[in-house]
């Protein structure tokens, strides 16, 4: 029954993703010309795949070019709603003046510079795909986006879960969890999230991502000195090139990722699938992860307003920096592809 539910859930996410792609871009007859329109003589037999099959493959390749989250952010509904609200024509390619007004509209609505830039990137992607002008290269639009960033500078208010804070959180699990299994489960997840600098979407299922860690991709070394975690996909690696992360044993610490994970393995159901699951085999969700974290913060009398699921990653990066670990090493350990890791060090 659980397997059927998971299968239906994956089917549902796939259908939603396909609808998003169809809304963002549609491969029409004008964009992929039909075969047989040239002057070369046609053969009565077709040795290759049909034109319909090639069109289907073209759509599939376009879909695979970006993550589902990117397709969602590139949805044109907001821009279309803006034009409808102001009685502007819905012609494509979009009028440049409409794009300029749209940027001003988003700013007036209080959207962050990052969100506004994302909307413009989506419009630009559609235009480039269809062979129209590149919105992102319009001088006025570029300067307006720069003005948004200068006028509305955002500050990351998320607080770090440092080793000290993590110790308090783990100590509260016995009070907020229903049983010893749940306590062991969330102890392993929270500890691994911190020491492995994991994004929550890499560990558990989220509303937009089903690439959660599988039990087959985690193993404890024979000497029990480390955990080896293989990530098939992550935010900066959408091409599915596996990355193996080695998380060492912490012999002098009350917080040991190897010990907490082996304790969880001892009680985990013997089944394949997601690494972190409840006693009945149901996978842990992001909402459940966040809910237990929030209860632990409340029980431990910690400020829970600025501590989020990403705080494990922020806290570990902060602790490593305070220990004198080289920035290049922190960047590699956290799987950052840019200098963005600097913003995580508090």
Describe this structure in words.
By secondary structure, the chain is mainly α. The chain folds into 2 domains: 66-154, DNA polymerase, domain 1 (Orthogonal Bundle), CATH 1.10.150.130; 163-344, Intergrase catalytic core (hpI Integrase, Chain A), CATH 1.10.443. 50% of the residues lie in helices and 4% in strands. It is built from 15 helices and 3 strands. The chain has helices at residues 2-24, 51-64, 68-73, 77-85, 96-108, 113-129, 139-151, 163-171, 173-176, 180-195, 200-203, 257-267, 286-299, 311-322, 327-333; strands at 218-220, 226-231, 243-248. It has a 3-stranded antiparallel β-sheet with strand order 1-2-3, covered by helices on one side. Strand 1 (218-220) and strand 2 (226-231) form a beta hairpin. Helix 5 packs parallel to helix 7 (139-151) and helix 10 (180-195) packs antiparallel against helix 12. The longest helix has 23 residues, at 2-24. The two termini are 46 Å apart. The relative contact order is 0.10.
Condensed summary:
This protein has 346 residues and is mostly helical.
Furnish the topology, listing elements before pairings.
Blueprint lengths: L1 H23 L26 H14 L3 H6 L3 H9 L10 H13 L4 H17 L9 H13 L11 H9 L1 H4 L3 H16 L4 H4 L14 E3 L5 E6 L11 E6 L8 H11 L18 H14 L11 H12 L4 H7 L13
Antiparallel strand pairs: 1-2, 2-3
Helix pairs in contact: 5-7, 10-12, 10-14
How many helices does DSSP assign? 15
CATH architectural category of the largest domain: Orthogonal Bundle
Q: What's the rounded overall pLDDT mean?
A: 83
| H/E series | HHHHHHHHHHHEEEHHHH
Level-1 CATH class name of the largest domain = Mainly Alpha
Biggest β-sheet: count, sense, barrel? 3 strands, antiparallel
Number of strands: 3
Overall 3D form: globular
Strand content: under 5%
